[in-house]
Fold this sequence. Notes:
The chain is α+β, with helices and mostly antiparallel strands. The protein has helices at about 10-20, 50-60, 65-70, 120-135, 180-185, 250-260, 305-325, 335-360, 365-375, 380-390, 420-425, 440-445, 480-490; strands at about 1-5, 25-30, 45-50, 90, 95, 120, 140, 145-150, 155-160, 165-170, 190, 195-205, 215, 220-225, 230-235, 265-275, 280, 285, 290, 300, 430-435, 450-455, 465-470, 475-480. Helix 1 runs parallel beside helix 7 (about 305-325).
Amino acid sequence: MHDVVIAGAGPVGLFLACELGLAGCSVLVLEREPEPRSPWRSFPLGLRGLSGGSVEAFHRRGLLDPLLTASGVDNVPGTDEPAPPRSVGHFAGTPLDPAGVDLAALPYRLPGPALDGIMTSLEAVETVLARRAAELGVEIRWGAEVSAVTEDDEAVVVRAGEHGYAARWLVGCDGGRSTVRRLAGFGFAGTEPQLTGYVALATLADPEKLRPGFTVTATGMYVTMPEPGHFGVLDFDGGAYDRSRPPTREHLQTVLRRVSGTDVTLTDVRLASSFTDRAMQATTYRRGRVLLAGDAAHIHSPLGGQGLNLGLGDALNLGWKLAATVRGHAPDGLLDTYPAERLPVGAQVLDWSRAQVAVMRPDPHSRAIRAVVRDLLATADGTTYVFRRTSGTSIRYDLGGEHPMAGHNAPDFRLADGTRLGELMRDGRGVVLDFGGRLRDVALRHGSRIRYASGPARADLGVGAVLVRPDGIVAWAGEPDPEAFGKAVTRWF
Ligand SMILES: Cc1cc2nc3c(=O)[nH]c(=O)nc-3n(C[C@H](O)[C@H](O)[C@H](O)COP(=O)(O)OP(=O)(O)OC[C@H]3O[C@@H](n4cnc5c(N)ncnc54)[C@H](O)[C@@H]3O)c2cc1C
């Protein structure tokens, strides 16, 4: 029997598999596709934006360099100087100027090698994670489609093809149409679509008729990517298009002409698919021995590039908690903090995508709101607000505790000897940074589960010590009071 079976070898399933493997769990990943390669996952159609928070998660597991290499991104050496982000992204097609971000409004952001988001591809992310998973002893079965799930008090049995696999836990990371979600009886609730979106790789006879980047028009929105012939288009048809088949060249051309207000001609369509802005979320992420993460737990439009980041955040939050539960040292209720913490974050992302759709709708009221929003976004507060949402720096779990840093992603503290917090987190344990060296005895009592590091910090942001969970969240921060610190350790470890 495996400790955990994961359905789906997408980025979220693989990230979770690595987290569990790192903690010594036996993990089997069942993937429906016969092989990893697909044109939908490689560049250009597999192009995805990773936020600074996601990039930092790779940094903290020692996977940043392989990720940058696989993504074709130059490594940027870490700096000690606060610097604006390289990109903020866009809101409803309005691009934002990174120079407008007010760094003083981001008190828990310290300079480091993983501050900024990057453009990558699903293939690059999955290649790096699959390689790491193999090193950690994770088994991946390709061509294994999960089709039935039964559960009792002791185990879950998962059927894929002719085979049945028993495990203590099953995690559905099997995407937006999740079979695990359906078979295990999860509720899935939200809002129906207003639009149909298309992405395509095509040959255009007259590409100069389309504008570069995002263009919001009177009837929808289109975006042209740097790769010739790679475009997306949003059609506010109430989600009426029949998505059971790939869109034809004729249909795509009709929609693109109507939305762009041009007579652009598509001579050939190599690949095309459609999506909607249907925004739904599982009503809980855990039912008994079955859990959900990633698109299996929430779907929404790809506007603003949030789904992958949200899913990786789920995997990071769940991995160490499930591992501690499997290995029998989890404090009471630890696993249930996964849905408690991640459901609200998912709900916020769904609303963020709904807000963008509402602003882009081609009607006079939305057009009026769009003008107001554009003016607000041009201010430093507006740009900073969007950056906090798209980078994940606005996320703060309600962990109680007095210090405002508790519940936030930990800044990449750097000790006087140059060691960064991110480097101390590679083995997946929690970390205590004790800048004054007064918590050593308490910390060392929990030595196998938390790593202790002491010494002055180059910038300590006014705290004497910080306890960081394995997912990088500050569990406790404050003056080095052994009693308060000890309570925090016992609560999480
Ligand atoms: C056009 C587009 C652009 C996007 N851009 C961005 C972006 O820039 N940034 C961002 O953060 N997000 C973006 N997203 C969203 C992002 O791609 C998804 O949120 C992300 O891929 C979800 O990962 P996942 O692992 O949860 O699911 P998936 O990537 O869907 O992986 C699920 C895996 O499960 C497998 N599977 C399915 N059913 C079964 C079964 N029954 N048994 C076994 N295996 C099964 C599938 O084959 C697949 O490999 C974009 C999405 C689209 C469509």
